[in-house]
């Protein structure tokens, strides 16, 4: 990454002995270091970045940012080189601030949302609300950068260098409003600490990522970091108080003196009073600080109303007029891969794709589908490899308890044995039909659809590949659903 030149001190970094070299670029991976770069040697999950300082120096690093451990590992090489050395307790945080200063601009109004489920949905709805209000806006996260400026991303919350490169490019393209996702990895690794947030949102907290976070509480603390560290004291916290951990987040925000907008079904500032479901969406009745409103949502699933209201709360927190926000809710569109209608059989049976990949999301998505279905609800479910293994049986259970027929199949086995992942899911859904090949599972489930039935294909949502080993084979649930319908009912897929 190169973009001009700045002195080390302009990145908010002070080196031992007062050295203040010109910096020509930033890198967290030694292999990306070039002449004059600052190399951030970060404590990793597998290895300490300090091990790579020697290579970064050989490639011409002008400065190294690390912690005491990194400085110890490379003490000899650092002493021999003329590179400036910045040692700090939290080099990830220093990198986040440094990257923000390096790239400079970011959209003037930024909001972030955290929670186990619903981040992409809320960030996307918030971007759509801003656009409907005539503002230039983006959302940034799992589905890349979308809206008035687009770019692909590999992570839900990219590491700071990618994040600030992206935000500054968006700002240069006149984007004034940005909604981003704050993943728990991103928060734990301080990836977004350099973003100037006006508001932050919390959706919910349930099981996921226990492969990365040692305990449930550690996972919660990572998410709470959005309010107790990243959002400034003068920011606004928008919190779903229906979630059992919502009130804890409110306490954290209160402690910080932040303004708070609560969202929920009872006793909230933005209160969901009622929902009436039909084949294409729902009507909602809600109140904001005492005044009642109605809105049409062309979105399937009761939980989407919660996500929409959280997004509305964030828009208000970022300065929009409440009345105007509520007026545009009817224009919100389905978020790609979330309760998205993918295909319809000749007999009228509908096939939806959804990104449910946690036990709570599988339960929520299936329960949300029920009021829209007259016949049987069929589910396809699978769990990812190299991810939280404890959630597999629970995802199976959630499917078995909330669908009439279940197919268990593969969803990104990665480096694990797919059969053993399926076996764990099957433990929770012993009556399910196991079909390893995902395309075949979709074909068989679509074949089982009779008039009035609905199929929910969970797990991959917008994804365009099946990750097996380190290969990504092209695979798209929505496309496979159309292929299956064409094969069974005739016509062109
Ligand atoms: C598990 C995890 O989050 N890992 C992140 C972490 O890497 P790490 O600690 O595992 O790194 P490591 O392999 O131990 O290496 C330590 C350090 O040495 C450096 N290194 C390594 C090799 C080398 O030759 N030279 C070198 O300098 C690495 O860049 C790293 O900084 O720090 C790196 C630098 O900041 C991140 O790029 C990396 O994200 C990886 C790519 C990743 O895939 N993360 C996923 C799990 C993730 O973040 N997902 C979330 C959650 C999505 C969700 O909500 O479901 C996301 O926001 O996308
Ligand atoms: N408010 C909610 N409560 C419970 N489940 C939800 C909620 N919103 C979405 N879901 C479920 O979670 C799935 C993922 O939604 P979304 O992509 O918005 O979440 P996310 O938090 O961004 O996920 P990721 O951590 O992968 O980025 C949806 O497809 C749906 O099944
Ligand atoms: N961001 C999530 C996405 C999971 C999606 C699912 N398809 C899987 O691969 O488990 C993760 O990496 O855990
Ligand atoms: Mg997401």
Description of the molecule:
α15 crosses α16. The chain is built from 16 helices and 23 strands. With about 500 residues, the protein is an alpha/beta fold. The strands form four sheets. The chain has a ten-stranded mixed sheet, sandwiched between helices. Strands 16-17-21-18-19-20 form a six-stranded mixed sheet, with helices on both faces. It has a five-stranded mixed sheet with strand order 1-2-3-4-5. Bound molecules: ligand UAG, adenosine-5'-triphosphate, 2,6-diaminopimelic acid and magnesium ion (MG).
CATH architecture of the largest domain: 3-Layer(aba) Sandwich
Point out poorly predicted stretches: none
- Say how many strands there are: 23
Tell me what portion of residues adopts beta-strand conformation. 15-25%
Bound small-molecule species? ligand UAG, adenosine-5'-triphosphate, 2,6-diaminopimelic acid, magnesium ion
Radius of gyration: 24 Å
CATH topology of the largest domain: UDP-N-acetylmuramoyl-L-alanine:D-glutamate ligase
Function: Catalyzes the addition of meso-diaminopimelic acid to the nucleotide precursor UDP-N-acetylmuramoyl-L-alanyl-D-glutamate (UMAG) in the biosynthesis of bacterial cell-wall peptidoglycan.
Pfam families: Mur_ligase (PF01225), Mur_ligase_C (PF02875), Mur_ligase_M (PF08245)
Motif (Meso-diaminopimelate recognition motif): 411-414
Organism: Shimia isoporae
